[in-house]
Design brief:
InterPro entries: RNA-binding_CRM (IPR001890), RNA-binding_domain (IPR051925), RNA-binding_YhbY (IPR017924), YhbY-like_sf (IPR035920)
Distance between the termini: 12 Å
CATH class: Alpha Beta
CATH architecture: 2-Layer Sandwich
Domain CRM: 1-96
Structural class: alpha+beta
Strand order of the largest sheet: 1-2-4-3
CATH topology: Translation Initiation Factor IF3
Pfam families: CRS1_YhbY
Largest sheet: 4 strands, mixed
Helix content: 25-40%
Organism: Ammoniphilus resinae
Order of helices and strands: HEHEHEE
Keywords: RNA-binding
Number of strands: 4
Strand content: 15-25%
Radius of gyration: 13 Å
CATH superfamily: YhbY-like
Number of helices: 3
């Protein structure tokens, strides 16, 4: 689990990022979560946008993405989800303790 201080740090790091995945009317599926998990291994911190065509509740989608990719949900702002997962091989972010 991330502390409030760690989440604030990650939110500031994610501020300049653009979403690299979109969740549309297909919703969250295994293929999408697999791709997100792979992207997290490379980048550690990503944004995902939830399109208006997605029929599911944004909180449900954010939770499903975090669980499916085994990642931490840093923030859900509007229809944008910020996810973090510490990389095993490409460690880039030094998170405050």
């Amino acid at each position: 689990m991330l502390t409030g201080k760690q989440k604030r740090f990650l939110r500031s790091e994610a501020h300049h990022l653009t979403p690299i995945f979109q969740v549309g009317k297909g919703g969250v599926n295994e293929n999408l979560t697999k791709q997100i998990a792979e992207a997290l291994e490379v980048r550690e911190l990503i944004k995902v946008s939830i399109l208006d065509t997605c029929g599911e509740d944004k909180n449900t989608v954010a939770g499903a993405l975090a669980n499916g990719a085994d990642a931490e949900l840093v923030q859900l702002i509007g229809r944008t989800v910020v996810l973090y997962k510490e990389s095993k091989e490409n460690k880039k972010l030094e998170i405050p303790t």
